Every structure is written in structure tokens, then in C-alpha cells.
Automatic annotation (TrEMBL):
Primary localization: membrane
NCBIfam families named among the record's database cross-references: T2SS_GspK (NF037980)
Family label: Belongs to the GSP K family.
GO cellular component, one term: plasma membrane
Alphabetized Pfam families for the sequence: T2SSK
Residue stretches making up the T2SS protein K second SAM-like domain: 230-281
TM ranges: 20-39
Lineage: Bacteria, Pseudomonadati, Pseudomonadota, Betaproteobacteria, Burkholderiales
Keywords, alphabetical: Cell inner membrane, Cell membrane, Membrane, Transmembrane, Transmembrane helix, Transport
GO biological processes: protein secretion
Record-given protein name: Type II secretion system protein K
Protein localization: Cell inner membrane
Organism listed in the record: Roseateles puraquae
InterPro entries reported in the protein's UniProt record: GspK (IPR005628), GspK_central_sf (IPR038072), Pilin-like (IPR045584), T2SSK_SAM-like_2nd (IPR049179)
Amino acid sequence: MRCRPVALTSSRPTQRGAALLTAMIIVTLIASLAAGMVWQQYRAVQIEAADRARAQSAWILQGALDWARLILQEDAKQNRNKPVDHLGEPWAVPLAEARLSTFLAADKNSASDDEGPEAFLSGSIEDAQSRYNLRALLGGSTVPPLEQRVLERLCSQVNAPPGTAAVIIAGMRAAFPSAASGASAPAASASETGPLQPAGLDQLSWFGLDADTIKRLQPYLVLLPKATPVNLNTAPREVIAALFDGVDLATAERMVQGRKAKPLNDIANDAAAYLSADALAQATAARAAVTSSYFIVTGRLRLEERQLEQRSLIERQNLNMVVLARERINQLLDR
């Protein structure tokens, strides 16, 4: 009896399939690793570019702030013998948006329109004492009735919700108990049970005011480190009309138009042409003036689709310009 030989099945096709699968897995792994490395490199470049742009923007805005301080210092030198601040002085002229290369180029041929992203710089200096200072509400154990009427008139002019003035007064006196009580303790001492002390008008939301109300009051109110008079040479008509009893917007507008031709040099003499005797009696040195010590410097840098804005509060102490506060706002512009 013969045994027939059994034919063995070849394993070569199986080996070829396993080798092909292994190769595909290796290629996939290599492609994944390469893609990850490329993404990591791209992300690192983006972060480095963002950091560089942020640092450059900060230096540019710092330079703009230093330039504003120099302008205010020169203004103080010129007004040393006759201290008067008005909107006809160089510091009050805003810097219109201009391409940054126009400031950096030595000549027209040194800056190319195709080199790097376009950056635009603008800014302004605003008299902080052109607004009504909320510190006037803290002048004793009770709110001075005149100052309460001023705040109520301002809230009424901007169509703020009823009771807005009462909310602000209650919040301010609760946040600054030492100043409100007239005690000898520093005004900055915080209350242990009351609300946090706001450093600016935006933080009045801590008292319960909504963002829309604060936005309406922003052009007419300010919170400075100490009580200050309103500069009648720079204040808008709304603030002037609210500052004195019996003065309407029409009378305040006459003062605004008249000071363009001739700024007020003296409250007692020059303001008498616009204010009644009763209103003029309220224009004490603590409430009205023709000079200013506090200024708000705003610098804006627009770079492609982003805009970086810096607001600084400066106190002018003779020829020394002291930066008291600084705030930066990074905005994404709509295209």
C-alpha cells in the first residue's frame, strides 16, 4: 500500500500580507509623528510671534505715554506764571490714527509698504477734571446736599434708571467709610463689611449698576484719588449745567462756546459773564477751577485684526508727571 504525499500549503502570501500591514502601520506612525512635530513647531512659532508682538506693542504704547508726559510737562512750564488749562492748548489736540512707519522712517524710501504687518497708532490726552469727581460725595458725615443734587442731575441727563444716584452714593459711602465720616484716618482704608473700593468708574458695577448705565455716565463722571474741582475750561456743558443750581444746558452751552474764543482765566471775573450771582457763589475753589492736575492718556495700537488700548491716569505735580494707574485692553476687531 502506497502513501500519497500530502502537498504543503505555501505560507508566502500570508507573510507578504503581514509585511504589508506592518509597513502601513510604520508609515502611519511616522506620518503621525511628523504631523505632530510640524504642529508643535507651528504652535511654537505662533506663540513666539505673539509674545514678540505683545512686547513690541507694550514698548510702543509706553513710548506714547512718555511722549504725553513730556507734552504735559512742557505745558506746565509754559503756564508756570499763569496757570490755566483749556482745550486750545497742544495737549488737547488728539493724535489721529497714523501708520507707525511714518514715525519710524527716516525718509520716504526707508520704509517699504510690503515689509511686515501694518501698524497704526493713535491717542489722546483728556482732562480728568473735566468730569465730576465722585470724591465730592465723601466730604463729611453726611452727603453735601449740593453734591447730591449734582449727581442726580447728571443721572437724569443721561436717562439713567431711577435711583441710580442713590445707589452710587450708598455704595461710595459704604466703600470709603473713613472719608465719608470725615475721620482723620486715610481715605483709602478699606471697609471690613462694606463693598470693595472701586478704583475706576468701570468698577461701579460692584454697587449693582449695569454696564449700560455705567457707559452712559462714563463721559461725565470720574473717580480720582482725592477730591478735585471741575475745570470750567474743559468740562462739557452737561457737567457745567449739573454743577450749579439754576444753570440750564443753554447757559452752559454759552460758556462752552465763549471759552473757545477766550478761555476763563479767573472764576470770579470771567465766569460772571455766564453765571448768575447764586451760581457764582457755588463756584468755590473746591468746586470749580481753571487749572487741572489729573489727566487721562489713551494710546491705541492697531495691528492687523487686533487693537491694543492703554489708558493711564497721570497726576501732574508741578513738573513731575506721576502715573497713578494703567489699564490695557486687547480687542479683536471685526473684519
